[in-house]
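Before going further, learn to read the protein records used in this course. The integers have meaning only within a learned vocabulary of local backbone shapes. The record below shows the convention in full.
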Amino acid sequence: MKSILSPFNNTRAAALSLGSFAALLHIAAAVPTISYNTGSLGKLADGASTTGVVVDQPGAIAAYQDFSSSYSLGDRTEIPFLPELNPPSNSPFTIEFWAKPTASDDADAPIGNRLGGSVDRSGWVFFQRASGWNLRMYNGNGTQNGWDITAGPAPLNVWTHVVAVWSGTEAKLFINGAEATTTNNGPGGYNANTTEMFRVGALIGGDNGYAGAIDDVAFYPTALSPTQISTHHTTASSTVPGAYSSAVLADGAILYLQQNPPSAKLEITSLLPLTTKVTFTGILAQSEDLTTWSDLTTATSPYTPASPQPGKLFFRAHR
């Protein structure tokens, strides 16, 4: 790995040369509008952020170069409605995120997909309360909460690991890796959302805006076990790059917003003949001379370059 000065816009980048190929991680200065999904749904679950979302902030994970996004004043990241992120009401799922609030008006919504208003409400939402993290799951009977459980604390200016597990019949909360004792203040029941987006930072239209940082948002189509959740919390303290993300992906996250900048990683898959693959987030581009770049707008990760190539071939990822 060597550091070079990219002629693209005179910013520092890193290039990895493998035979006739090289991968370039280029930190572009473009407007940050995309939160990249590295879960199994891929680009389908990329999130579009409003312009006030501040990216590349210090993250919750101890490993080098982990970042988060900061939200305020109703700014949010929105993921289009996908059936995979809205399982049937009797199907299990898990929601996981890290939050570091900087303020609260006792009704901030860091994450949710609630279909609200005056209609029969469906879906779920987290609220940051003075008493802790409040999960509400709606049962389709007006504005009634089928499940209304709270666990804390929800301290300001401190990272908290928050996980909700729906078994198909019961909701549980885990705070900082440990299952919380909760009391349901609703009559039970859950009505899955069938139209609403998955949002981070606020609800529809910026309602119930959250103030603070959010990191490593994940959604699983299964009920994670207490051991898996505890392992995630413990692994977040590891300084080994990729240890936390590997645990999340190994446990089947279909949505995983790491809140990190675009990245490109090149690997040799065969020596004779030499073949490689590029795993990336963002937009992948290639160049033979580090001067003229061509965006590979239809490329999906992992990308396998055609072989053989003349001379060196560089890759970069950008927003």
About this structure: The chain has two domains: 2-28+264-318, 34-257. The chain is about 5% helix and 40% strand.
